[in-house]
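queue> holo job accepted (zinc ion)
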Amino acid sequence: MKIAAVLFLFSVFSSSITAFPHFFPNVSSIPPSLLPNITAGAWDSFNNLSGCHLGQKVPGISKLKNYFHYFGYIGNISKNFTDDYDDALETAVKNYQLNFNLNATGELDESTVKQILKPRCGVADIVNGSSTMNSGKAASMTGHTVAHYSFFPGTPRWPRSRRDLTYAFEPRNQLTDDVKRVFTNAFARWSEWTPLTFTESNNYNTADLKIGFYGGNHGDGEDFDGVLGTLAHAFAPPRGLLHLDSDETWIIDDVFASGSPSAMDLESVAVHEIGHLLGLGHSSVEDAIMFPTISSGIRKVELARDDVEGIQVLYGTNPDSNSTTGPSFGEREMSGAHVMSSVVVQIIFLAVGLTLFVL
Ligand SMILES: [Zn+2]
Ligand SMILES: [Zn+2]
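queue> job finished
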């Protein structure tokens, strides 16, 4: 019993530090009694800013400026942000609205706030001051923008000599085969359309692509922010790092039921982040995998025409594919899933762990 108690205490202590990711095979595996517990998202306070516009001073605007700074819409500044809705913020809001196909009013109207609140990829929409999305591209006279795939500045890609890439998982995450299989499937979505192949390696240090779940500050200057907010990020070639927020409630099965305020489909996020690993930036095409936001409870795993066109500019087509029988574009599996607080989930895991130790 003494050893069990020590082990239990150790598990509590270590779990708060390493923030083990929470996985559920599907919604029905989450205890119904815990479903009503929904943790507030990282950006919920932006709801209070709905209707704000140039010239106003409202508490919370400084946090919104940080948000726009993080995603590249406001450049580097030498001092802390104020709560003034100034010209820089108005320009940022306008560019954001252009990128997300909203009316470019520069005001925080309801539809803009709704979009801002959506969980999203942590990779910036505007890198080094140049937008890779709509706001950086010429709009036609009719107001319709030329919206399509983009690349990182300098168009980094894996060289021609590196078409067979290896990937490995952060050993400390101790991921199960079920979780690893999600990534296998996600990689297959890209290899289907390109000459690239992806093979799992047991050697994390030498793998081309390194995948890991981390919480908060994890050493690369791109801190995660708890439930919702940013979900994951990945670095352009040849860095090969794909990081996911361990504080999310990740669903790994492909069956999503209805109603899911905070459960995220792991494969949907993995397919998007692999796009970054291969050199794709964000796209303003809402159906595209490379669109920056994804709503909770949504499953979106199939490449759109925009994604395929972008990746084939970088790598060419799959020499083994039969173009007449290839998969159709634009099909989406969309549905919802139930959720629960990640904190409560962690408590369940610990309780199960204690039971096992006692037994
Ligand atoms: Zn992204
Ligand atoms: Zn990271």
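queue> The domain at 164-315 is CATH 3.40.390.10 (Collagenase (Catalytic Domain)).
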